[in-house]
Design brief:
- With about 325 residues, this protein is an alpha/beta fold.
- Helix content is about 40%, strand content about 10%.
- The protein has helices at about 25-30, 40-50, 75-80, 100-110, 120-130, 135-150, 170-185, 200-215, 230-240, 270-280, 285-300, 310-315; strands at about 20-25, 55-60, 60, 95, 115-120, 155-160, 190-195, 220-225, 245-250.
Length: about 325
Amino acid sequence: MSADRTLPMTVAAPELPARIRIHEVGARDGLQNEKTVVPTAIKAEFIRRLAVAGLSTIEATSFVHPKWVPQLADAEQLFPLLGEIADVGDVALPVLVPNERGLDRALALGARRIAVFGSATETFAARNLNRTVDESLAMFEPVVARAKTDGVHVRGYLSMCFGDPWEGAVPVAQVVRVARALMDLGCDELSLGDTIGVATPGHVRALLSALNEAGVPTGTIGAHFHDTYGQALSNTLAALQHGVTTVDASAGGLGGCPYAKSATGNLATEDLVWMLEGLGIETGVDLDALTATSVWLAEQLGRPSPSRTVRALSAQ
């Protein structure tokens, strides 16, 4: 916090975790949803500024075929530019890989943290992966196995955990089955995605409890909420109350999902940090530096940041 900013006032909640790791997804999940392609140099500078602001996990890019996500077609050009950034506060730079070909590309550039992206519902699996849920799990199996053999950290993303735009409400047991399968493949952590932003706190608590009962430890779970219905922070708080200590967020509230048009922006990292500062929870993030970074990126994109905290602080 800067010396001239006294708010938010800290009122600690001792029942909550003392420290949270923010998994910053703006450079990948955020920029992949932009209508225009952001220049590689701007992406690299964005990631550098995020690191300087104190974010220790910054998802850098995706090694998906350029045909499907043209906004991230420069992964081979971008990732080599990030070597020095990784030395800023020991920053981790995970990348998304869809299959073995994507893994080959990532490993060739020295990536040491990867993520695979699955679906809890059949319709989204068909639209996003062109496979059934079980076929996508079979596709991930050799990716995870090879990565683990090479000592690479693997995150499993699971989308549509709380609702699907085509199938509606998603039964908790259905989500648990796919989540357990992803962890059984060997994933180190699991990110629960509220892809279209329909979750509510009670639903979050129910899913987390069911996952624990199925043998998935809270310590391996990350929360990934979208703010479509204004519920992202309340859902995050419910996850923290359950003991979750990894929260996904996107600087400036960038992002959505190109394969689910009802998915609006991710939880804004600044909004999350404001809440956590008020709760006395450590993040290692300098909110003022982060806000300046999102203001800078908004200028590059030619539109204001959707983050309420960015707008409030930048107007002062």
